[in-house]
Amino acid sequence: MDANDRAALRHKLIEQRLALPDRLARAADLQEVLRVWLLRRRETTIGAYWPIKGEFDPLPALYRWGEDHPERRIGLPVVDKAHRTLRFHVWYPGCPMEEDAFHIPKPKGTEEFQPQLMLVPCLGFGPCGLRLGYGGGFMDKTLAEMQPRPAAVGIGYAQGFLPLLKPSALDVPLDAMLTEEGVVWDREG
Q: What keywords sit in the KW lines (predicted)?
């Protein structure tokens, strides 16, 4: 699939996701899937994302995960323009925020840390951990460069499943994939 085909597919998937008539019900189901999945995890630091373009919002489930556990930290990405990667800064409800260069809210003035687990938004996904994002390459490059590499967990709606998706040269496979229907893929499970 060439870049033009992928761009058209991304556009189509965004439109489909925004048009889901039951997106709020799907989001509630995915909140539950994520909360239950996190129960068996040992990580104490999670890198997440601020939801855009109809993406699932993981922050309520993560807030519950971190409640009453002061050692647990949640981070949101801050773009490192020079390296085209992401750094993660502590997020908590009510923390100071500002918009980044892409007009996405990011924490302002909070501590940077490297997450042990990253929740990765998926516009689309394929078999065995393949992910289709927005095409900027930030997540893949970040995952490829982090040492030690955090576990990468895709989050998206089942409507984005692409059974014939093929990896591109720079794709970094996910370790797990969660949708409102449950755990679709888990390398450990």
A: Ligase
